[in-house]
Amino acid sequence: MLLGRLGLEKARIPHADRHGCVFLERGRLEVEDGCLRFVCAGGGALDAGDYQLPHQSVSIILLGPGSSVTHDALRILSAHGCALAAIGQGGVRFYTAPPLLPDSSALARRQVTFWADPKERVAVARQMYTIRFGEEVKARTIEMLRGMEGARLKRLYELTAQRYGVPWKGRRYDRANPNATDIANQAINHAASAVEAAAAIAVASTATIPQIGFVHEDSGQSFILDIADLVRHDVTLPIAFGAAKQALQERDENLERLVRRRAAETFNKDQTVARLINHIKAILAPPLSGDISRPEPASEPKPVTEPSKGSPPDPERREA
């Protein structure tokens, strides 16, 4: 491996030893005396104040609404291999981010290697379904897994609607007119978009490849959609049906705003982005002893049994 100019790459803290993500909003990201600082106006997750940031030991800074960044800040972030992404409040939207330049290509290389090997691809997809449904699945093809998913999702929608007391007549989505359906379906659409943004942040943070999915195929965000689906049972649907219930009770409230607010609260409370990053690392871990079996995934909670205070799937996605 070629060294960087003057060997400066060796001075960087490896991303594996860094703290991961830092969320900032309502302030100015700048440099003072060679140090990165964030002058926050308050009114959001952070109190008003002047914060010095350990940019050498962070992998990515997530800059939310009401923020600005100076050219000097971009320069110092680049020099230390720290990425910067523009996001919606709480991570409910992912607008843009320059490619993260990690110190290792291991995850991306394994992603491509697993995808290119039919047996490994099915093994990774099976692990994803184990994470989602809490039990090992025996299907031997992607098509069989998709069929199993459709049946389970249909039942999951019904059960979640019952828990939240929201009328449910089935999943409906018209890509030409997504608002031409009932409140519950519209809420699922909005919640799916928010969770996909969190998944996009996780994919960017791990420098994996958005286009290389294991279950999804055609979308330019196939891997992002795969990762978002890992929390559909305990993040996406509770957000959607909780917001739908509130919208039915408070008719003057904007549904999309309710979903975004609930999603931001859930992402912060449950550390959703961090969970998704850990899932990516788990499913792209090296095979055990050269076998196609995957390492055991982290256990996932079952769908919630009580309403929490606090998609269509994308047009490219399958309909359940």
TrEMBL record:
The keyword DNA-binding applies. Keywords: Antiviral defense, DNA-binding, Endonuclease, Hydrolase, Magnesium, Manganese, Metal-binding, Nuclease. Residues 287-320 are annotated as: Disordered. GO terms for molecular function: DNA binding; DNA endonuclease activity; hydrolase activity; metal ion binding. Its EC number is 3.1.-.-. Its cofactor is Mg(2+); Mn(2+). GO terms for biological process: defense response to virus; maintenance of CRISPR repeat elements. Mn(2+) binds at residues 149, 216, 229. Transmembrane segments: none annotated. Homodimer, forms a heterotetramer with a Cas2 homodimer. NCBIfam families: cas1_ECOLI. CRISPR (clustered regularly interspaced short palindromic repeat), is an adaptive immune system that provides protection against mobile genetic elements (viruses, transposable elements and conjugative plasmids). CRISPR clusters contain spacers, sequences complementary to antecedent mobile elements, and target invading nucleic acids. CRISPR clusters are transcribed and processed into CRISPR RNA (crRNA). Acts as a dsDNA endonuclease. Involved in the integration of spacer DNA into the CRISPR cassette. Belongs to the CRISPR-associated endonuclease Cas1 family. PANTHER family: CRISPR-ASSOCIATED ENDONUCLEASE CAS1 (PTHR34353:SF3), CRISPR-ASSOCIATED ENDONUCLEASE CAS1 1 (PTHR34353). This is CRISPR-associated endonuclease Cas1. It comes from Candidatus Filomicrobium marinum.
